[in-house]
Specification:
880 residues; Immunoglobulin-like; 5-stranded antiparallel β-sheet; 21 helices; elongated
Length: 880
């Protein structure tokens, strides 16, 4: 079932009026009793007497669902409990009698409508419960292929057998409603023969329902008190007391389904989100058995009320109902506590497939000095983002028994290949001796965009050893322990089409600029001069036969160095795909936004009871306690990402009805996602949440890739979206709030200056006198704000824009950015390409002329001077 269908069904169920849930009394009375018709007035219309409520216990739920339990309870279970725990019903018998006397079958149609509403609700609950079982069964079958799950499967079968009689009674009730609905339609259409057939079915299903409780009619009759104890002995740890024996003297079985599921997950699964899904499904399967028992108990109470002359269930059944509900809640809380212990801090399934914002700029430029031979020949290279995007699709995971999460960027738009990383250019100068050549290359803009995420929670891997964070050692051993890619797809549930081929290489952080790696040896073999001002980079060359017991030496041997000089570059690397993986810290943090409504408020607190402000940062997997204060208009409490996608519905209207105290307060808990999030309350009076358009944000005064001379001041400004919006509740804006300057180099990204804005004008002046020559990036942060009660509230998940610039002695105005640059890599096959594209002949070495010797000496002196260790005076000058 799709998410859309699930949401539709749940929303449909929530809209049902409470009186429709009690329509069982109506249809039971219709079948079982002769109902006196109400008196008619002169118009012929029946007189509808006011419905008379029959009161159950003052409070069924002496214990509410615990806050940590709500996080694991499926909506189907909450809906079942909400119906079972409903405190009052309605005496609809006189109304039913009146409806049957309405002309033109109106009474039949209303009964049909009531039955349809109940069936719709049951259908939604049934589908959700079926999904729970199907998901868990599918997971067990998959895990069973690699690990023995016989004991777990057998114990699940024990639970199913114990709960079967409640499933049967539940189904009899549904069939009874179907027959009642069909009987009503037949009556309305005048199909007397068909109506008689459906009436027979109604009576039969109703008798089957009643027989489920009769020891004389069935070998294992429904007995709520003993059956709850039996179910608890299979599912629960601390409730009830297992030392008590049943009346027959035999000890109840003591099976711990969640403990068994936990052990199997640790052995067979790759990632935390998989274990969370399995533990939650097993907890829900257990809870579903209790919820269905409580639901059937409610039907039994309604049935007894239909048999009573005064339309009220005898006190003994109401007392039993109170006991059933309270013990059911205790059992579900026990299951919730187990699930919290095994899975409470694990990454959730909604964190697995993510769209992550990278440290992105579209283009840049770099000044290449080209110090060769007896003189330098500088040039500026334009850099472009070829493969990277501002927002990248990725798998985000955390291996079981690992402390650090990871990101694997997907190849939904093709794989990154080596040529994407290289910007290459050749400069030529004809001379009488022959043409002189200068080859230049540097790392393209993609590397700067992929080295980290914008929030700095993830950074590009540094070596082959980092790939160990992709695997759970226990399940990796089951997989054979050597093939990463088959493990990712077979155990990690990743789509092979969204990963590069298994023969791929991998991108890592290390590269070395041309001033450290240039060479000029090839000019000996050419009548003119050839200088290579080209960078080199490291990459992981082999990911096959990757085992966890390899030494650091073995892993380091997998890292190779590529010299991008056209005389040295391996042409086979050009189109080799690259795996792009980033690793995160165990203490990464994200922002949390809190959306209030005029008629509902939310308070979020940390583990120490401190209030958490909207827009603040929290560590991933930290426990969040949420206190909701709402009334009858409440509809849902949702956990969302900053793009407005619902990650998890934390509380439904049914859940609120079940758990709210007399002041309309509900406390529940969840964990902080591994992404920026928003907690949103929705009520019947909520205005649609607005979204500010990110495309309206801009940075002015600097063009991507622009070059400035050292010492020149740089003035820039920022424009947000809807900054001057009015204070209507729910209005949204993106306000320029801060800026920073980052230095971009082979060593990574380093912040060198920053500032903040509180109001117009959003302008800044950067003095460049103290900055070294090189590449830089301006990053402007736009605060995402929402108006509530006349105040702008920070909602977290700030939007960021970047503009790159270069400080160089010979500024060159950037060319207009092309739509899709054709990024030429270095030439192939040990020869360089001239401007015409013709290969250059390499002539054998025959001697070194005096000019070449002088040039070599001059170049060597220049290189030595550039690469000498910094003196104390140099460092002081840099500090000044």
């Amino acid at each position: 079932m799709s998410d859309t269908e699930r949401i539709f069904r749940r929303n449909r169920a929530r809209t049902l009026a409470r009186h429709s849930r009690c329509a069982l009394a109506c249809v039971l009375a219709f079948c079982l009793a002769f109902l006196p018709f109400a008196p008619r007035i002169d118009s012929g219309e029946p007189v509808i007497e006011p419905t008379r409520a029959y009161a159950g216990p003052a409070e069924f739920l002496t214990e509410k669902l615990a806050d940590e339990t709500i996080d694991f309870v499926d909506d189907a279970i909450v809906s079942s409990l909400d119906y079972a725990a409903e405190k009052t019903g309605y005496n609809l018998f006189s109304k039913a009698a009146d409806l049957l006397t309405l002309p033109s079958g109106k009474g039949d149609r209303e009964i049909e409508k009531l039955c349809n509403e109940i069936l719709s609700q049951l259908g939604a609950v049934d589908q959700d419960i079926k999904d729970i079982g199907d998901q868990l069964t599918s997971e067990i079958l998959k895990l069973g292929a690699v690990y023995s799950t016989d004991q777990w499967a057998n114990d699940r079968r024990t639970l199913t057998e114990m709960a079967q009689k409640y499933t049967d009674a539940y189904n009899y009730y549904q069939h009874f409603l179907d027959a009642t609905q069909n009987y009503s339609k037949a009556q309305e259409s005048g199909d007397t023969q068909g109506a008689e057939g459906f009436k027979t079915k109604m009576e039969g299903y109703l008798q089957n329902f009643a027989d489920s409780f009769d020891p004389a009619k069935t070998g294992d009759p429904i007995s709520f008190a003993s059956d709850i104890r039996k179910l608890a002995s299979v599912c629960c740890e601390t409730y009830p007391n297992y030392g008590v024996q049943n009346p027959a003297g035999s000890t109840l079985p003591q099976l711990y389904l969640l403990k068994e599921a936990n052990g199997v997950c640790d052995q067979t699964q790759a990632y935390e989100h998989q274990k969370f899904a399995t533990i939650s499904a097993q907890a829900n399967e257990c809870m579903e058995a209790f919820a269905k028992l409580a639901y059937v108990n409610r039907l039994w109470v309604d049935y007894q009320a239909s048999l009573s002359p005064d339309g009220q269930a005898p006190a003994q059944y109401l007392t039993e109902q109170e006991t059933v509900i309270n013990e059911t809640v205790q059992a579900i809380n026990d299951l919730g506590a187990q699930a919290e212990r095994y899975a409470g801090t694990l990454m959730r399934p909604y964190d697995f497939n993510v769209d992550v914002d990278m440290s992105y700029t579209e283009r840049g430029s770099t000044h290449m000095y080209g110090h060769y031979l007896a003189f330098s020949r500088p040039i500026d290279l334009n850099l472009y983002a070829v493969w990277s995007r501002y927002t990248m699709s990725a798998y985000q995971g955390k291996a079981l028994n690992s402390s650090a999460p990871f990101l694997l960027l997907k190849t939904d738009h093709g794989a990154l290949v080596h040529r994407d990383l290289i910007v290459y250019e050749r400069d030529t100068m004809p001379t009488p001796r022959g043409t002189n050549y200068w080859d230049y290359s540097t790392m393209n803009q993609d590397w700067y965009n992929l080295v980290s995420t914008y929030d700095s929670n993830y950074r590009l891997v540094e070596g082959a050893g980092d790939f160990a964070t992709l695997v759970n050692p226990q399940s990796y051993a089951l997989s054979g322990g050597h093939d990463l890619f088959s493990y990712l797809t077979g155990y990690g549930d990743m789509d092979a089409s969204l990963l590069p081929p298994s023969s791929t290489t991998a991108l890592i952080q290390k590269w070395y600029p041309a001033d450290k790696t240039h060479d000029m040896s090839e000019h000996f073999n050419h009548p003119g001069m050839v200088g290579s001002w080209c960078f080199t980079y490291d990459y992981v060359a082999d990911l096959t036969n990757y085992t966890l017991n390899q030494s650091s030496h073995e892993l380091s041997n997998r890292v190779k160095n590529a010299n991008t000089s056209p005389y040295h570059y391996d042409k086979n690397l050009y189109d080799q795909p690259m795996l792009v993986m980033l690793t995160g810290s165990s203490s990464q943090s994200h922002t949390i936004g809190i959306e209030q409504q005029p008629d509902a408020s939310i308070t979020v607190r940390d583990d120490n009871g401190n209030d958490i402000a909207s827009g603040s940062h929290r560590r991933s997997s930290d426990k969040l306690s949420i206190i909701l204060n709402a009334g009858d208009s409440f509809e849902s409490l949702d956990l969302m990402d900053h793009r407005g996608n619902v990650l998890d519905t934390l509380l439904t209207a049914d859940g609120f009805n079940l758990c709210a105290d007399e002041h309309g307060l509900v406390t529940l808990s969840t964990s902080m996602p591994y992404k920026d999030c928003v907690i949103r309350v929705t009520t019947k009076n909520s205005a649609p949440s607005e979204t500010a358009d990110e495309s309206l944000c801009s940075i002015d005064g600097v063009v991507d890739g622009q070059t400035f001379a050292p010492g020149d001041p740089i003035v820039f400004s920022a424009e947000g979206a809807n900054v001057e919006a009015d204070h209507a509740w729910g209005a949204a804006r993106l306000r320029p709030s801060s800026w920073r300057i980052e230095s971009l180099s082979d060593g990574g990204i380093v912040e060198v200056a920053d500032g903040a804005w509180s109001a117009h004008p959003f302008e800044a002046l950067l003095a460049t006198g103290g900055l070294n020559e090189g590449m830089y990036r301006i990053v402007v942060t736009f605060a995402r704000e929402r108006s509530e009660d006349g105040v702008w509230i920070d909602m977290g998940a700030p939007y960021r824009l970047g503009r790159s610039f270069t400080l160089a002695s010979a500024p060159v105005e950037p060319e207009p950015a092309p739509g899709a640059p054709d990024n030429a890599g270095p030439a192939q096959g040990g020869s360089a390409l001239a401007a015409t594209g013709d290969p250059l002949p390499l002539v054998p070495f025959v001697g070194i002329g005096i000019f070449s010797l002088i040039a070599c000496a001059a170049a060597a002196f220049a290189c030595a001077r550039r690469n000498r260790p910094a003196t104390r005076n140099d460092r002081r000058a840099a500090q000044r």
